Structure formats: C-alpha cells, structure tokens
UniProtKB/TrEMBL annotation:
This is Release factor glutamine methyltransferase. It comes from Butyricicoccus intestinisimiae. It catalyses: L-glutaminyl-[peptide chain release factor] + S-adenosyl-L-methionine = N(5)-methyl-L-glutaminyl-[peptide chain release factor] + S-adenosyl-L-homocysteine + H(+). GO terms for biological process: methylation. GO terms for molecular function: peptide chain release factor N(5)-glutamine methyltransferase activity. Keywords: Methyltransferase, S-adenosyl-L-methionine, Transferase. Residues 109-198 form the Methyltransferase small domain. PROSITE patterns: N6_MTASE. It is an enzyme of class 2 (transferase).
Length: 283
C-alpha cells in the first residue's frame, strides 16, 4: 500500500463520519504523520506506507473520530497568513476573526507610532499578526490565563517578536484601570457566548476548547460592558477600539458603547454580511 492509498482510505473514513472538509483534513493528517515530508500529494503515489505511519494514521483518525478539532491534533493553525501554535489552552483561530485583525492592521498603518493592546489575546494570533503586518507598531498582549500567555509567548518567539515591539503580560479585562499604559488602538476578541448558548455548544468546542475564553456572562455582554463603561485599559483621545461580537448581539453590544459616550460607534460586517465587529472612537 502506498501513502496515496492511505490518504484515499483516510479521506473516505473522514467522509463517513461526517467531516465536511474530509479531503483537506486527510491531506493535513497524512502530512502530519509524515512529519511534514512529502506534503505534495503527487509524491505520495511513489512512497510505500510503513507500519509506523499506518499506526499513527489510525491513532490520528481515532482522535478525530472523537470530535477533537484538527487544529489541536496538528498543534498549529493558520491565521491572517501566519501559522500559530495552538493548544487546548487557547481558542482555535477562526477565519471570521481575520476581519477583526485586518481592521486593526489598517488603522495601525494610518498611525505614525501605534500602540496597540490585544485584550483577551489567547494564542496571540491577532496582536502578533498586527505586529508582523505593521513594523512601526508596539503591541501589548494581555490575558487572564497564564496557560494562554505561555502559548502566546511561544508564538511570539516563533515569529521572532520580542520587547520592546511586543509585550505579553497577565491582566484582567473585567478589572477597571488594571492595565497601566495608554494605547492608540484596542483590539479584542473577548468571550461572548451566553449561558444558554453554552449549553448547546458543538461537542468539538464544548469538549476541547477552553470555556474561560468562551463564556461572556448570562447574556454574553459582560466584557463589552467592561470595555465600554469601566475599561481595564486607557485609550488616548481619538483612539480606536475594535471588538468581535457574536452574530446575534452586535447591536446590543454597540449600544453599550453609545450609552457610555463613545463616538462614531458602528458595526462592520463579515464576509457573510453579518455584523461582527464593533468599531468605536474614544470620547
């Protein structure tokens, strides 16, 4: 049996258990089992399948069969054109969040010396992507989870980012005035899942992703109330805030900022036309 035969068999097995992108996942898992070698499928037809690789593919399939996300199996994932380490201590970067990252990148490019806070940073994929895209930016990454910060530090080292360009530190987004610096841009993908939604999470999320990074209070708005009314950070006058929100809560979250006196509060839509990014300017 060749590597190609194993790939075809794995692709079918993934299809049979309902994996939507079975072809992509089979390709990634085979490449992972081969330790990144022969990632181009055309070479697989010429390579025999050895016993060790066969066993590893079986183990990987069994993990995926239990709904473990592909990103955690691989231990890495792509975001905004960069690859990041991911573990079950952090959320898996989503394509939808690239719109949030890009909003911060474009705003930072318009500033001479942007000072950016990535609040609730998790893996650091947003803040580090901004730092990579905007060389003149200074970026601070903050999270309340030491485990998440450890992953963010690994990702900073992976991309050669260190102080003074990038600072990674512990902080509580719900504690007012707890982050002692003044920023020109705040970007955040905070927890925003409601209590009701937490009871209906997909198993791949519920069983594997960190609930600390998901639960946003009974109505999912705890972190937006904090950012709008009693922020942990200081934002320069005219400074900008960009925050991702749930697909049903955009207007409610935006209204919190309007009521607190923020200026130019509006929502940006994602590729599907759903309002997902709150944009606001410091009063």
């Amino acid at each position: 049996m060749s590597i190609w035969d194993a790939y075809v068999s794995l692709r079918q097995a993934l299809t049979d258990i309902g994996v939507e992108e079975a072809e992509l996942e089979a390709r990634e898992l085979v490449a992972f089992a081969l330790h990144g070698q022969a990632k181009h499928a055309r070479a697989w037809r010429e390579l025999p399948l050895d016993a060790e690789t066969r066993e590893q593919l079986h183990v990987l399939f069994e993990r995926r069969k239990q709904d473990e996300p592909l990103a955690y199996i691989l231990g890495e994932w792509d975001f905004y054109g960069n690859r990041f380490v991911v573990t079950p201590d952090v959320l898996i970067p989503r394509g939808d969040t690239e719109w949030l990252c890009d909003a911060a990148v474009q705003a930072a490019k318009r500033q001479k010396q942007p000072k950016i806070l990535d609040l609730c940073c998790g893996s650091g994929c947003i803040g580090l992507s901004v730092a990579l895209a905007v060389p003149q930016a200074q970026v601070t990454l903050v999270d309340c989870s030491e485990q998440a910060l450890a992953v963010a530090r690994r990702n900073a080292a992976l991309h050669g980012l260190s102080q003074p360009r990038v600072t990674i530190t512990a902080g509580d987004a719900l504690r007012p005035n707890s982050i002692h610096d003044i920023f020109t841009i705040i970007v955040s993908n905070p927890p925003y899942i409601t209590a009701q939604e937490m009871t209906a999470l997909d198993r791949s999320v519920d069983a594997y992703e960190p609930h600390l990074a998901l639960y946003g209070g009974a109505d999912g708005l705890d972190f937006y109330r904090a950012m709008a009314q009693r922020p942990a950070f200081s934002l320069a006058s005219g400074g900008l805030l960009f925050a991702e929100c749930g697909w049903k809560q955009g207007e409610q979250a935006a209204q919190l900022f309007r009521q607190a006196g923020w200026k130019n509060v509006h929502l940006r839509e994602d590729l599907a036309g759903i309002p997902r990014i709150i944009c606001a300017e410091k009063f």
